[in-house]
Amino acid sequence: MSTRDSLAARPGAPGQAARSHGNVTNRLRRANGQLAGVLRMYEDGRRGVDILDQLAAIRAALDAVALLILDDQVAACARQAAEHDDLERATADLTATVRRYVRSR
Fold it and tell me: Do the Cβ atoms of 70 and 97 come closer than 8 Å?
């Protein structure tokens, strides 16, 4: 089984994934709109401090999205561990997911 097919890559509980998906999608669209606004600010020659403030807000929004996605991953790993009696694999998958995200920072 490939990493893509690992326990951590599977969706969360029914209903939970749909709720999270909509929330994540909305937040990403909002962050995308904020980024477009920052581009306009830069192109218009706005003050650097104002642009940096907006970039910090976008980063915070993306961090919140990442936590929502991580929450879904934790739920999926826990559910799969219970269903397949494979806590060790679920823990390894979740740890790999967190490491990959933290390294990207």
Answer: yes
